[in-house]
Amino acid sequence: MRKVVYYVATSADGFIARPDGDVAWLDRPQPSGGYGMVAFYRSVDTVLLGRKTHEVGRRMGQESYAGKRNVVFSRRSRKGSPGVEFVREDPGAFVRTLRGAAGKDIWLVGGGALAGALLDAAQVDEIVVHVVPILIGEGIPLFAPRRRSASLRLVSSRPFPDGVVRKRYSVSR
User: Fold this and answer.
1) Lowest mean pLDDT among 61-65, 75-79, 113-117, 119-123
2) Which residues share a beta bridge with 6?
3) Which helix (H) or strand (E) holds 159?
């Protein structure tokens, strides 16, 4: 079965973006290899995004993820970029079906609301979070707030010379 991996960056205080969706604080010199993103990108063939995350990407000039099936969850019907599929159905049910189809792993790009919904539906297998050494004080959390309890097992932790730390967790079922 295909894995769903939430591969994301957060500020040291746990936010994936400022309240308005701004992620300019992520623009920083990266070490050689880009924190492993190139290898990770090759390991997936589908990306999952919430509508707001997709809109932020479009404003930044990224219409879609090249060479991948792009799925955007939105409660409203949308017309968007070529190669982007808008889905209105329940994210948990959709991803459960998607995981059963042949293919590579699935990248849960975000945002926090979609990540929370999929975690609550037991459709997230791994969380790979890059903690960036910056405090932004407020913003969009890694997972949308909700009463939940999810046990994680640390698989690996890797510090980079610029202070970023990549932590990889498996989600216990």
Assistant:
1) 75-79
2) 108, 127
3) strand 152-159
